[in-house]
Specification:
This protein has about 375 residues and is an alpha+beta fold. The chain folds into 2 domains: about 40-150 and about 160-230, no CATH class; about 255-375, no CATH class. Helix content is about 25%, strand content about 10%. The strands form 4 sheets. The protein has a 4-stranded antiparallel β-sheet with strand order 1-2-7-4, sandwiched between helices. It starts with about 55 loop residues before the first helix and ends in a 6-residue tail after the last helix.
Length: about 375
């Protein structure tokens, strides 16, 4: 999703990546088709029953990490990697961001800061984190046609089925399988639901780098990606043969320049100005100065991602194949008059199976009225 509870400027320095889609010359390129890491499948350990206290040497732990990654990809995730559990490098950045009030009305961001800055505390004796990425939109289809007057746009992440359910179901399936083989180990699944620094973990796992808009960018797949994972007590480490993905943003400021509300600065988002926050999280009336900058967005915003060069179409590549079909657009916009006329039952019916349930009836109707005003419509 576009709005970000960013904690600070970040730069990717740790290797570790495995993605289903790689391109010639990209950091993820290998001769192997998906994930070989220099070992044949026969050479890798099967997930035989072991105890938590068993001694795992470094080679075995790397093989275990590779096997976990492959299992995640077998469940349809486009990317996966193993992240370490050490404390966040950006604890002070989070403290400054919160102190400045940039989280707006998201008071829950102030809770569990000890875990947000030290993901290893999510479970006792945590040793590794399997991080996965699920692509919800293709960079080959990054621009919408002009919106029809009388309709409000929906951010791409919310156009398909609820990612929380889709990702969690697969991660729970994997965690349950691991519990059978490792009955004394512990596993905790997270999908945008636990107080962990997901983007920093994705960065450690080599899924991508954190862009200036504070979203994870994969060098081939772009930034239209959900992040989830499993914190575990298994002693799994990232395999040796891992490409290093460096920050490719360089001097580009496209996302900063394009944000209509000036919510983005270098690797930081002020949620109080972010259109995604305003339309999804903010429960109160929206400042009139910001309303005119919201344009046609009734739920969420994709502007900073649409202008990103790493989300532009990539010639001669089958990027769309990495997109999870469950997230394909079921509805890209809402009829404004229809939304204004909703009752609670109609809102619930419209949001069945969707991640949009977070937006309450009065919020959606507020957003619809703002978009109508921006389109020059008189609907009162």
């Amino acid at each position: 999703m576009c709005f970000l509870v960013s904690i600070a400027k970040t730069a990717l320095k740790t290797p570790s990546v495995c993605c289903a889609a790689t391109s010639p010359g990209s950091p993820g390129r290998r001769k192997e088709s998906v994930l070989v890491w220099g070992m044949s499948r026969q050479e890798r350990p099967s997930l035989n029953r072991r105890t938590y206290d068993s001694v795992v040497d470094s080679t075995t732990s790397q093989q275990l990490g590779a096997d976990l990654i492959e299992r995640a990809q077998a469940l349809g995730f486009a990317c996966a990697g193993i992240a370490s559990v050490e404390p966040s490098d950006y604890a002070q950045g989070l403290e400054r961001w919160l102190s400045a009030g940039m989280h707006g009305s998201m008071a829950w961001m102030e809770n569990y800061t000890d875990v947000r800055t030290d993901p290893g505390k999510l479970i006792e004796h945590a040793k590794a984190i399997l991080v996965v990425g699920d692509v919800y939109a293709s960079r080959d289809d990054n621009q919408d046609p002009p919106i029809e007057i009388g309709r409000g746009k929906i951010a791409r992440y919310a156009r398909g089925k609820d990612y929380h359910k889709l990702m969690k179901k697969r991660l729970m399936k994997l965690a349950d399988s691991l519990r059978e083989h490792y009955p004394d180990a512990s596993f905790k699944v997270f999908v945008d639901t636990a107080p962990v620094p997901e983007r920093e973990l994705a960065q450690r796992a080599g899924i991508g780098w954190v862009g200036k808009h504070t979203l994870i960018i994969h060098p081939t797949l772009g930034s239209y990606m959900f992040i989830g994972g499993i914190v575990m007590t298994l002693d799994a480490t990232a395999p040796n043969e891992q490409p290093i993905i460096t920050d490719h943003c360089g001097s580009c400021t496209a996302c900063i320049d394009a944000c209509p509300t000036d919510a983005i600065t270098d690797h930081r988002v002020d949620a109080r100005k972010c259109i995604s926050y305003l339309t999804i999280e903010h429960r109160e009336p929206i400042d009139e100065q910001l309303q005119s900058q919201m344009g046609d967005w009734i739920y969420g915003c994709d502007i900073c991602q649409e202008v990103c060069p790493h989300n532009s179409p990539k010639a001669n590549e089958q990027i769309g194949q990495a997109t999870n079909a469950a997230y394909l657009s079921e509805r890209a916009s809402f009829d404004l008059l229809e939304v204004i006329g909703w009752d609670e039952e109609a809102r619930r019916a419209a949001f069945v199976g969707s991640a949009m349930k977070r937006a309450k009836l009065d919020m959606m109707q507020r957003n619809a009225r703002i978009v109508a005003k921006n389109q020059g419509l008189n609907i009162e």
